[in-house]
Amino acid sequence: MLGEMRKLREEIREFREENNRLLSEMRADIASLRQTLDTGFQNMETIFQKVDAGFNEMRVRLDEFAAGQRQIADLVATLVAQRNGTPDDRARHPRQ
User: 90 and 74 in contact (C-beta within 8 Å)?
Assistant: First the structure.
């Protein structure tokens, strides 16, 4: 009976040591995964900042282009009005 108790204690100790080893490996794996995720999220944030900057730049360019188109349309309308001898109503009623 004493021999069986020693054997049982030995098995329990080995089982505990194996579990501790496995848990330590799992902790290391989780820590590595967390580091990988943190790095990935930082990279994504950098990419999103570049995309946002690109959208802002395009918005400015499109606004500038629209303003230029507006000036051209106004000039053409003025020329047409002058050619037809009619007053240019935009001078009295500017667009918003």
Answer: yes
What does the pLDDT read at residue 89? 59
The H or E element spanning position 3 is helix 2-84
Q: 77, 90 in Cβ contact below 8 A?
A: yes
Q: How many CB atoms lie under 10 A from the CB of residue 74?
A: 14
In angstroms, the CA 83 to CA 5 distance is 114
pTM above 0.85, yes or no: no
Chain centroid offset of residue 68 CA? 32
- Calculate mean pLDDT across residues 14-24: 97
Whether residue 43 contacts residue 50, with contact meaning beta carbons closer than 8 Å, is answered with no
